[in-house]
Design a protein that fits this description.
The longest helix has 15 residues. This protein folds into two domains: 64 residues, Winged helix-like DNA-binding domain superfamily/Winged helix DNA-binding domain (Arc Repressor Mutant, subunit A, Orthogonal Bundle); 160 residues, Chorismate lyase-like (Chorismate lyase). The protein is 26% helix and 34% strand. It contains seven helices and ten strands. The termini are far apart. The strands form three sheets. It has a six-stranded antiparallel sheet. It has a two-stranded antiparallel sheet with strand order 1-2. The protein has a two-stranded parallel ribbon with strand order 3-10. Helix 1 packs across helix 3 and helix 2 packs across helix 3. By secondary structure, the protein is of the alpha+beta class. It comes from Sediminispirochaeta smaragdinae (strain DSM 11293 / JCM 15392 / SEBR 4228) (Spirochaeta smaragdinae).
Length: 245
């Protein structure tokens, strides 16, 4: 693509569209390294600042990712979670064609921390199961997920294999606990050192934090969970409907 210097379209935007066209056509694939800013400068006969502006906008829009000391690469498409019905990570990912696996980080009984006791409406010191896992999609770490469940609800919960199995399937099939509703809070934040190491991202990289309280029938709190999703690989969609009247 040649730059049309008579056009009203800014030069940097024409460069951006040229790179996007290569991505859309498949000439540039996820993981491919694009031309450096000096190479773009020479190719399009523009200033380095103009080339940088084109690349920066594509980075900001999620099409490219900069890797310090290595260059700029085509970003992998984000995994999309369209939030219309309640479901777990495993079911959601498998429905999209991903192979799901987990690594157990914590699995034990503990006295409920204050924030858990508050969410689940428990007395202080009530024992809960704490299950913390690193979840993978096609062997790529996507989310750190931890769940807190009162021990009296599922007495032998920790005897099950959570590296392969689904926690929510177990709730339904083994314990006959049907989660009816869930309340979630979402927050954009930055990865601390521990989170970054587990998710294989840079410290302070953007992540999506979600906490969820799940309820059985009659609004009985059953599970409290917290999740830290990679911001570069996960996208959360919510469908809203206008209330009539």
């Amino acid at each position: 693509m040649k730059i049309d210097r008579t056009s009203h379209v800014p030069v940097y935007y024409q460069i951006k569209e040229s790179i996007l066209a290569e991505i859309s056509s498949g000439r540039l694939k996820p993981g491919d390294k694009i031309l450096s800013e000096p190479q773009l400068k020479d190719k399009f006969e523009v200033s380095r600042m103009t080339a940088r502006n084109a690349v920066t906008e594509l980075v900001n829009e999620g099409y490219l990712v900069r890797k310090q000391g290595y260059g700029t690469y085509v970003q992998k498409p984000r995994i999309e979670n369209t939030q219309e019905k309640f479901h777990g990570f495993k079911a959601d990912m498998e429905a999209k064609g991903f192979t799901v696996s987990s690594r157990i980080l914590e699995s034990k009984q503990i006295p409920a921390p204050d924030f858990v006791a508050s969410a689940l409406e428990l007395e202080q010191g009530t024992m809960v199961f704490w299950l913390k896992r690193l979840r993978f999609a096609n062997n790529e770490p996507i989310v750190i997920h931890e769940s807190y469940i009162p021990t009296e609800c599922c007495p032998d919960l920790l005897n099950h294999d959570f590296e392969k199995g689904s926690l929510y399937t177990l709730f339904t099939t083994t314990y006959k606990k049907i989660i009816e509703t869930a309340v979630e809070h979402l927050e954009a934040t930055a990865a601390d050192a521990e989170t970054a190491a587990l998710l294989v991202i840079e410290k302070k990289a953007p992540i999506l934090f979600i906490d969820r309280t799940s309820y059985l029938k009659e609004n009985i709190p059953f599970e409290y969970s917290r999740s830290w999703y990679r911001g570069d690989r996960y996208m959360f969609d919510v469908t809203l409907q206008r209330q009539q009247g």
